[in-house]
Amino acid sequence: MDNAELARRRDTLMRHIGENGVAVIAAAPERVRNRDVLHPYRQDSDFRYLTGFPEADAVAVLVPGRDQGEYILFCRERDPQRETWQGRTIGQDAAVSDYGADDAFPIADIDDILPGLLEGREQLYCPMGADPAFDQRLIAWVNALRARARAGVKAPLEYVSLEHVVHEMRLVKSRAEVACLREAARISAAAHRRLLEVIRPGLREYEIEAELLYDFRRHNGEPAYPVIAGSGANACVLHYTANDAELPADGLILIDAGIERAGYAADITRTLPVSGRFSDEQRVIYQLVLDAQTAALEQVRPGQHWNAAHEAATRVLVAGLVELGLLDGEVDALIEAGDYRRYFMHRTGHWLGMDVHDVGDYKVDGHWRELEPGMVLTVEPGLYIPPGSPVDPRWQGIGVRIEDNCLVTRDGHDNLTEAAPKTIADIEGAMAG
Ligand code: GLY
Ligand code: MN
Ligand code: MN
Question: pTM for the full model?
Answer without folding.
Answer: 0.96
